[in-house]
Amino acid sequence: xxxxxxxxxxxxxxxxxxxxxxxxxxxxxxxxxxxxxxxxxxxxxxxxxxxxxxxxxxxxxxxxxxxxxxxxxxxxxxxxxxxxxxxxxxxxxxxxxxxxxxxxxxxxxxxxxxxxxxxxxxxxxxxxxxxxxxxxxxxxxxxxxxxxxxxxxxxxxxxxxxxxxxxxxxxxxxxxxxxxxxxxxx
Length: 186
Fold this sequence. Notes:
The chain has 186 residues and is an alpha+beta fold. 26% of the residues lie in helices and 22% in strands. It contains five helices and seven strands; from the N terminus they run ααβαααββββββ. The protein has helices at 3-8, 11-16, 37-48, 59-66, 75-90; strands at 25-28, 93-98, 104-111, 120-122, 125-129, 136-142, 149-155. A hairpin with a 2-residue loop joins strand 4 (120-122) and strand 5. The longest helix is centred in the middle third of the chain and has 16 residues, at 75-90. The radius of gyration is 20 Å and the shape is globular. The protein starts with a helix and ends in a 31-residue tail after the last strand.
């Protein structure tokens, strides 16, 4: 049994053979399908571990968003996850995300007693505490000279210093900063 299973599954769920996927909430980068789904999922997971979920809602986030003219598409789910992460930390839980390589948020609630889990994986992909730096970063761009799409998966300590396209165009300077005319994909 992996440490992840011990953190996100109750003893009863482990005994029944519940898989990690069975206690994961998936939310598109643009948000929930219906308001309150994320908070209900988080509250349900906290209850599963025998703790009464106080303040596990996103009403305060909804109210703040109504009055925020700067809110862009995709900002609201991040605010919800930030808020719930703080609430869970006070209860001894960690809001975790599975970096599945898609644009969805794959969310887990881990009973961690306040310590941030590290080195966790699910199906050989990283699981990390929400808000922590990913172990790897995906960088992509279109070469300004030949238009070829280039993609790199970099470890946290890696840069693209002096990287060039296959056509010879310089893409990054010696410090790893994009050259003028090079635009990274969001």
